[in-house]
Amino acid sequence: MKTHEKRVLFGKAVLRVAAGLFLATGAGICPVQMLAETVKTTSIEAMQQQSVTITGIVKDKNGDPIIGANVIEKGTTNGVITDMDGRYTLNVRDSHSVLSISYIGYKTQEITVGNNRQLDIVLHDDTELLDEVVVIGYGTQKKGDVTSAISSVKSENFVKGAVSDAGQLIQGKVAGLNISLPSGDPTGNSQIMLRGISSLKGGTSPLVLVDGVPGSLNTVAPEDIESIDVLKDGSATAIYGTRGTNGVIIITTKQSRKEMPPTIDYNGYISVSNILQRPDFMSADDLRQKWDEGYIFNGANLKDFGANTDWLGELTRTAVSHSHNLSLRGGSKNTHYTASANYTKRQGTFIKTDFEAMNARMDVTHSMYENKLTADVSLLVSQHTMPRSWNTYAYRQALIHNPTEPIKDEKNNWFERDLYFYDNPVGYIRETIGEMKRKNMRFNGSLTFRPIESLTLKAMYARRSTTTTDGYYQTKQHVSTTKNGRNGYAYRYGSDFDNNLIELTAHFQKTFGNHNVSALVGYNYEDNTNSNMSMTNYDFPTDAYSYNKMEAGMALKRGEGSMSSYKSSDKLIGVFARVSYNFNDRYLLMASLRHEGSSKFGKDHKWGNFPGISLGWRINRENFMKNLNWLDNLKFRVGYGVTGINVADPYTSLSGLNYEGAFLYNGTWVKALETVRNNNADLRWEKKHEFNIGLDWDILNGRVGGTIDYYTRKTKDALWDYPVPVPPFMFPSMLANASEMENKGLEILIRAIPFQSENFTWNTNISYSTNTNKIVALSSDKFSMTQDYFYSGYTGEPIQTTTHIVQVGKAIGTFYGLKSVNITEDGLWLVENKEGEHILATEADATDWQVLGNGIPKHYLNWNNTFNFYNFDLSVNMRGAFDFQILNYQRMFYENAKPEIQYNRLNSAFNKVYGKTQLKDEQRYVSYYIEDGDYWKIDNVTLGYTIKLPKQKVIKNLRVYASVLNLATITGYKGMDPEVPLSSSSYGLLDAGTDNRDKYPTNRTYTFGVNLTF
């Protein structure tokens, strides 16, 4: 799609049609079908004097034709509109005639005809007229009127290549928004953190809206997205109440417009991926060399089995993926439509880790009664399928296995040995059959009524449904049978999610002289219903049923299988209002209030209020600034807002009873009833209070510009599980509001066009962000802990200890453990105790533990560049994170030369520690394995070429491109990739900075694609 089309499309179809009709009507032009058609003048005399014919093409600065530009003979109503190729033909009075060429978003040009008969015109952006529209809560606003911290990324600036979801499209594009995909798993999704951590339990996921309806980053295919707007501060997100604490990401999909000729777009690519870096474990040759050198091992590497097996190589492959997106858009005077279909097949670099997605979308908009009433109906369906045969446990087994073992024995059975947690990884995967299938359906419809020009009434209903079926079966050749005697093991799971959403809004906007007032009131109702069931069984008569005949297993009949089911529902209701005021395009105000109720909270705190207010001052519009011709924009912003966090469990505030165990009563076994949750009528919203101050600036006709934002966030009444006495309580812990935390940060964005000529343009932007976090309190008058801290994170076996501390006065993500300082001649750890003395690790206790670093980066830096040279385009995206640490699990477990360690290990295990000797201590969690994680990534490089086609009516645009994702990383970290997950499934961000030993390795991906428009 051409650049100017994207800009206009995002500004909403209604805005473009209204502006186009205004310009065309004022010139006496009919814009139907947007074809070049000479408009008959009302002056017979003018018609008689037309004696010169002028032809030409109207283009933008990138050389793309502008469709629908107005070409008018100045002083008359004689004019035409450019056709689909930007061409026009116009008969004018004589050579003294002046052509006026205009199009919304561009500076109007006037050219005297003279002796020219071919006039090709290049229109340039008008930065004042354009003043692009950004999406805010329940509406849109001109960028120049925005008083909150909001960032907008258009499709032409998205990350190119084989992206997995909407998050990757804007990776590194928004200051303060940190997006990572730290795993090569094709089923994985982007992890997002905006402006630090605001909750101990609430996570960091933002609210994602897709065309105004709650969704996720993979609700629609990335190719269907027109723009992504990020609402960052509290004044912008307060109108969303409980869902706005972690920010709001608003996804706007590509839409059609009125009078749009049928347009077909195809976007497709094929990509090839490989593991970015393999961990350097001992190969068969390495192991045999160690034996030759006199090393003795126990467990896995006890002896040579004669084979030469690359266990990791047996599980990995070169992954080939492909994606195809086809869309159809068009429109008439009253009706316009959009339809798209997407098919994506992503292979993982590990066997049996594929992902298949099919998405389809249909949207129809119809206007009637002279555009006073507009109806919109949208349907979106998708199906995502992924295998369930894979388990990261197999990856660990591939690393720690003896490389001299064969894959199968002489009887063609999987080669197995009786060691603790030691299973043939190839057999583990090959003998597992499974699949998870998730089906999504979203319907939404709206009616918009405009009784008068300044008032818009809108009613919307949306329904979302997700159905998941999941199951796997471990055959009789699987280790679960050959070692554990399961005789075939099956698992089955199913779940349903339904959401109903009703939104009613009334929007009023009116200009009175220098005063522009906009007011919004609305009502929001939302209910959710979740249900699921699961079952396990084993001891099957045959493998033929897999997991599709669960009753065939004998374990359930013996009471050894398992069954469970669950259902829950909750409601969220809100009423909201917002008013915006603009005086003389100079002084700006926006204030909002949401009154919201949730069924999840205690009976005394069902409802909460969430206010937001922001002010703006366009300093460059003041009289004392009028002589600064180089200054295009200087706007000061300040905002304050309160948002909340909803709890996850819908019944947390209520006492709960479950049947657990049984007891014998009068000769009969009776199920025992026990308390599992206390009643908490005082359970209420976590509330985040945020203050933001910002500055927007542009100079040199828009060649250089940027934003600066500083914010403080304080989360009060934060939730955590606290111990309570029994009695009077029935259960020894309770989820309660007693904690407090704060975040402070700075965000800077600079964008520039360092070089611009007719054939070459360089666009660049640099963004920087920093954030500091601190726990202010972990207790209140009613709820407290025995200390002002608690431990988090866990190493797993055999070390089995915590890794982090959450303590008042310290930041989330703080590593806490023994500080290693040296090693003895015998290869034993020396650590620092609380007195500063060096002692053996075996002599240290918990009082000697200390802060060892922090796993959350304090600084993020992004640098994005786009180069256009004739028909070539090149984009280079780079990003980095600094001042943080990583706990390298693979080194902690496998970088040790002690013979008694049971498994294969890294080659670096035999290096000298601190330059003295090899490590021969027990596996321990010490600071030696906590490394600086600073990195700088050349993340994405894309080279494209737009093919100039001969004039014809079939293909309007053809572009081919090649890209590399994860091209290079500059770091001192010894692990595979310093970009580790932001959070874990068990501890959230409380154990940030852990590079788990089982993490699916990241990939480097090469992509070849085509963009085609008919």
Provide the fold topology.
Elements: H1 3-10, H2 13-27, H3 44-49, E1 52-59, E2 70-73, E3 79-81, E4 87-92, E5 98-102, E6 109-112, E7 121-122, H4 127-130, E8 133-136, E9 139-142, E10 150-154, H5 166-169, E11 177-180, E12 191-194, E13 207-210, E14 213-214, E15 225-231, H6 234-237, E16 248-253, E17 263-275, H7 284-292, H8 311-315, E18 319-331, E19 335-347, E20 354-368, E21 373-387, H9 392-400, H10 425-430, E22 432-452, E23 455-474, H11 479-482, E24 489-512, E25 515-538, E26 562-583, E27 587-598, E28 607-618, E29 631-645, E30 656-665, E31 668-677, E32 686-699, E33 704-723, E34 733-756, E35 760-777, E36 789-792, E37 804-807, E38 814-817, E39 819-823, E40 829-832, E41 838-840, E42 850-854, E43 859-869, E44 872-882, E45 885-888, H12 889-894, E46 930-932, E47 935-946, E48 957-971, E49 994-995, E50 1003-1013
Parallel strand pairs: 1-7, 13-16, 45-49
Antiparallel strand pairs: 1-4, 2-3, 2-5, 5-6, 8-9, 10-15, 11-12, 13-14, 15-16, 17-18, 17-50, 18-19, 19-20, 20-21, 21-22, 22-23, 23-24, 24-25, 25-26, 26-27, 27-28, 28-29, 29-32, 30-31, 32-33, 33-34, 34-35, 35-43, 36-37, 37-38, 38-42, 39-40, 40-41, 43-44, 44-47, 45-46, 47-48, 48-50
Can you offer a commentary on this structure?
- It contains twelve helices and 50 strands.
- 8% of the residues lie in helices and 48% in strands.
- The model is unreliable at 1-50 (pLDDT under 50).
- It has 1014 residues and is mostly beta strands.
- The radius of gyration is 32 Å and the shape is globular.
